[in-house]
Amino acid sequence: MAEAGLASTEDLPPKAPLVEGGQISDHRDGREVVLRLRGIRTQFGDKVIHDNLDFDVFRGEIVGLVGGSGTGKSVLLRTIIGLNRAREGTIEMLGVDTSTLHGKSQREMLARTGVQFQDGALFSSLTVTENIIVPIREHAELEDQTMREIAALKIGMVGLPADTGMKKPSELSGGMRKRASLARALALDPELLFLDEPTAGLDPIGASHYDELVKGLCRNLGLTILMVTHDLDSLNAICDRIAVLLDKRVVVGTMAELLEYDHPWVREYFHGPRGRAARQEHK
Ligand SMILES: Nc1ncnc2c1ncn2[C@@H]1O[C@H](COP(=O)(O)OP(=O)(O)OP(=O)(O)O)[C@@H](O)[C@H]1O
Ligand SMILES: [Mg+2]
Fold it and tell me: Segment Disordered: which positions (predicted)?
């Protein structure tokens, strides 16, 4: 869906050539690729969302995924974690082709990833502790008390007071709910973390505290994070690289590279009024 005020992408000159994995330049620098998408096509009925999409994520980095509303950011996350099936293409996660995973091997791979969905998706009838225990119970056979101790650890890790565990999601502020759903995403000590607009709806201070938390977790736990966001401050503050969904494909670059990238949506996004801070930072 084209956003109001943006130029049509149909009459554009041919796209600048990208190097492997949708990158503007080679960012690999000897690092392990923990997520490799090649030739991904997703569609619903006749509506094609992604077409021939390539995308690489390296171990230990935080990649921000941006793009206009409805361009398929959430669908891409859902496709990566197996909730939506790509019509074509391959997804390699932690070195394994995910199409070869079934049953136990699929559950084991899921246990190595954590997801925070766009709407938080905590179970409203369960307490925060019980919410965090849900994925633990699915993947491990542990005593109830041990699971509660793990949940308490995760609650502390995301900076929530200990008594949050006893509360229901409806008793928490929006920011606390986001941290609680992050705690649940961390329940199984994942290597790969997927976050869908985690700071949407937070005030700027709450959002920047959340960003610092995510950055700290990434550095201290050695996580790799793919984060959908509309928040230019987050992109600036914590993302090592930025992936932009454009014309059904992904273009990945550093902020400096994207500020130079010639595409109407990219120009409007990074050079519009909201992109001013980003521009100044990279002068
Ligand atoms: N299960 C589904 N069935 C049919 N169409 C779908 C389904 N899920 C998503 N879509 C469509 O796919 C497109 C991409 O949706 P998606 O939720 O990925 O957008 P998005 O980039 O995350 O947008 P936003 O920034 O608003 O969250 C939309 O047009 C949406 O209507
Ligand atoms: Mg979305």
Answer: 1-23
